[in-house]
Amino acid sequence: MSGGRLSEAVFVRTASHIRELVESWRLAHQTVALVPTMGNLHRGHASLVELAAGNADRVVMSLFVNPTQFGPGEDYAGYPRTLDEDRALVAETGLVDALLVPDVAEVYPFGAEAAVRFVMPELARELCGVKRPGHFDGVGSVVCRLLNIVGPDVLVLGRKDYQQLILLERMIADLRLPVQVISGETQRDDDGLAISSRNRYLTPAERRRAPALHTTLIRVRDALARGDRDFSALEVKAVNALKEAGFKPDYVEVRNARDLSRPNGRSATTDLVVLAAAWLGKARLIDNVLVIPSR
Length: 295
What we know:
10 helices; three-stranded antiparallel β-sheet
């Protein structure tokens, strides 16, 4: 890698400004990574920045609460917008070269309602897509737009939203976009709860119960690792366990890790992933664990 980091991230509001910056880096033969976020940053985002800095000369982080991925009644208006705190965390990392904070008109120049629409593959209507119709279409739209605006060599995503990761990898391959996808491990608190911006919706009592989501998935993972292939029974047992712990589960499912297709019968040779989404009070929590069979 060549060149040093900037002493402070350049604050960028427009597509033309970020393109000028990226072009200057290209002229210096430097590679660029993009870390797209909706802001309200935390340690999980910081870990993605570190991953980006290890795989490119320059790092662009975007902060944009995307209206097209929120459905009716969801928390778009109330989603935490914490720009001052986010800028402080970015400065603390010392690894971000440009902080892109566009407004809606910059990303959707004809307005979000009149924008060109994405239709993601059928997987977008499974798992989280069942209860959030259109969500992943909106995610695909905004990520494609950010890739077009920034033009990075590397796109860095987290694995906490595993369905989102698989769908975006599919989109990039399908559209032949010239960008490499790198994914980072889910960051967790000491009790196993996946770090998320929406964890702030949990009351203190709910926060104490929240690690049961990860614990339940670990139990399913361990059963699968021992060779149990009664997927339906494992899923039902996990859903019931979450209900007993005070959750309102949307789903617990075992899928093939590579593409989130359903496992084929009792096959024990495929890498699997256990995914779940469940409500705890006002917070909708998602998590997943990988199951790698011994070989």
